[in-house]
Specification:
Layout lengths: L14 H5 L19 H22 L4 H8 L3 H13 L3 E5 L13 E5 L1 H7 L4 H40 L7 H11 L4 E6 L2 E6 L5 H6 L2 H14 L4 E4 L8 E6 L16
Antiparallel strand pairs: 1-2, 3-4, 4-6, 5-6
Length: 267
């Protein structure tokens, strides 16, 4: 999980607007101005819709044009127009859809994911301060073990709410319950069925840029997921490592499997 923490001055144009339901500058909208519609009112509406597109990608992870159109109730043409503007402003980028498991015939669909600049516009304004603090801890004699201890203490403080959320929930519902609890903490998490298990997907990470330098944050989180879910889990991808979503594989626990094999990762 190597990377460089962006400088605090790096900001998407109009990033403050993004936080307040406006995304980026108006791009080529004058051609579609209905007769008698004030330009300012039209531009505000366009920014609002563009923000909905960006927010949907934040909440659901890398998305196709069809998925965005369905979620937002827009036409595919309208979604493409907004995506073109977001790409031009370095808020989103196009990439091939990542496929887990066996590939189907044909070329992978194109998906749109938030760039680092796009994520910065939503939050993470204290990334540099947090990274500097952890670096100071490591350099003052504590080393990487001190950082790891901090990471474990941090996630343990959050784990109480997660543990409460899955109490009384059967094995089949624990991943979904954990996803809902994580979403309350800003991780925009979902659970989905996967071959021989489930995947816990976190479409947003408030500490992604810090975790680029300090992977102990991701490692501690993975450990607590295993403890809460009662099985060994496998982290497949992380936002901090440059993936579009943090993906954790949770194997299906067989009731007649021995303790030594119940949580084994798939080959």
């Amino acid at each position: 999980m190597q990377g460089t923490v962006p400088s605090p001055g790096r900001r998407l144009p109009g990033s403050e607007e993004l936080r307040n339901n406006g995304v980026v500058k108006n791009v080529g909208e004058a051609r579609e101005t209905p007769a008698g519609t004030p330009q300012e009112e039209l531009a505000t509406g366009e920014r609002s819709t563009r923000n909905r597109v960006a927010r949907s990608i934040l909440d659901h992870g890398p998305s196709t044009v069809t998925e965005l159109a369905g979620r937002l109730g827009l036409t595919a043409a309208a979604v493409r127009r907004h995506l073109d503007a977001l790409v031009a402003d370095d808020v989103v980028e196009a990439r091939e859809q990542r496929v887990y498991g066996a590939r189907t015939r044909g070329r992978p669909a194109k998906v749109f994911a938030l760039t680092d600049c796009g994520r910065d516009a939503f939050d993470q304004s204290y990334d540099k301060l947090a990274a500097d603090a952890l670096r100071w801890i490591a350099e003052q004699g504590g080393g990487q073990e001190a950082v790891a201890a901090f990471a474990r203490a941090r996630i343990m403080a959050q784990a109480g709410a997660y543990r409460k959320a899955i109490e009384g929930v059967g094995p089949d519902g624990r991943t979904e319950a954990l996803a809902k609890a994580l979403s309350l903490d800003g991780y925009a998490a979902t659970a989905r069925t996967a071959p021989v298990g489930e995947q816990l997907c976190q479409h947003h990470c408030p500490v992604a840029h810090v975790a680029e330098q300090f992977p102990q944050l991701c490692e501690a989180e993975t450990e607590i997921f295993a403890e809460l879910l009662g099985t060994h889990v496998q982290r497949l991808a992380t936002i901090a490592h440059g993936d579009g979503v943090c993906t954790t594989f949770i194997p299906k626990i067989s009731t007649d499997a021995s303790a030594s094999t119940a949580g084994r990762n798939p080959a």
